[in-house]
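[09:14] KT: can someone run the structure on this one? pasting the chain below
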Amino acid sequence: MALLAAAPLFAQDSTMTAPNTLTSAERADGWQLLFDGKTMDGWRGYKMDSVPASWKVIDGALTLDAKGGEPTGGDLITTRKFANFDLKIDWKVAFDANSGIFYRASEVDGAIYWNAPEMQVLDDAHASDGKHPLTAAGSDYALYPTKPGVAKPAGEWNHVEIIARGNHIEQWLNGVKVVDYVLGSPDWKARVAHSKFAPHPYYGTNATGYIGLQDHGGRVAYRNIKIKVLP
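[09:31] RB: done, structure tokens below
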């Protein structure tokens, strides 16, 4: 797939060094790139065969080219499924933007968020969801709160790490562990039962699934998307 040319989303990051690449040490350790910085190979739209037109490669980042408001074309998912993994992603949002990183997603529901857990991606300072740790950047959306003050403001890169080993999930934001929970545990079941996910029987039950990026209508960019498959 050819590079989709477009104007830069944000000003160039002067500290950027070789994004969307792997070091020799990472390759030896089993890391794989999920985005090469040039094409959208390995990605498609949720319940689609191709990539929605609103997702583009802009300035070396996988970008939702939107101005805010309603979703513009659909969520993005990997073409491969993953069970146990260590996932690393950088993200940067525009003013008031909202997005999310889904994991172990399936296409069993009409919407990806009815079955896949979501790590919130957000401009905390200006988006309404940023007012509560349960829905602020870094949270396991609507179930497990994040730690306040960890997310960087709109226009700056944030670094995420999501580690999934069996039912044990860790979510890290900018080097800080912000969420740690166990899928299927009594605590998790109680939280789901009192959430908007309660009517959806497949929520959080997938042992394997796609990595997803949310189209929430806000302009967002992702880069350095890499994964290490765990036993």
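[09:33] KT: thanks! The longest helix spans residues 186-193.
[09:34] RB: yep, looked fine to me
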